[in-house]
């Protein structure tokens, strides 16, 4: 069976996928990127391309041959690079709540503002504040406390490195090079990635499907997990 590799986004971690592990009907590989989650003590990387190379090396180290791939948010930028660089091993691709432009036009605040506030407020308050924007109901969302706890594992260097990595990256001109069958999955209340980013992925990648989840924000897998899992199972098939 082809495993599914899940790559989290900015201020995320492998633990955020706990609800999906065992429910998708296939093997899963959940990664913590350097500087985040269980790897918070490791030096973060400050380029999307460097994270992509790290993911490919880690998958190889784990002995995974062919794999399907999902990336959330910043992780979606990373897996776009992985899908181009490791296309012989990538089966199906899921780009979840992400885009092709790292500057994040239309985001709830600019990247420059996030950097400034991180310096002023510190890592913990910044992580909690940003994590709240991922949910339709912000801090009142049932899944917010656990998600915020994962986000708080990242220190200030990882916050700056992740923001720098996104700010410097743009993949819009390379979308046509993604050969994998691709699902674009997005919640229509997402405060980080606006519809033009989603449309660009949908129309720029040669073989795509689009799933728009109503009344969900940036963390569809935590707000509407049953629907999220059903969409993945339908797209990925039996493995």
Automatic annotation (TrEMBL):
Residue span, AB hydrolase-1 domain: 4-228
Domain of life: Bacteria
Matching Pfam families: Abhydrolase_6
InterPro entries attached to this UniProt entry: AB_hydrolase_1, AB_hydrolase_fold, AB_hydrolase_sf
SUPFAM superfamilies given in the database record: alpha/beta-Hydrolases (SSF53474)
Entry protein name: Pimeloyl-ACP methyl ester carboxylesterase
Origin organism lineage: Bacteria, Pseudomonadati, Pseudomonadota, Alphaproteobacteria, Rhodobacterales
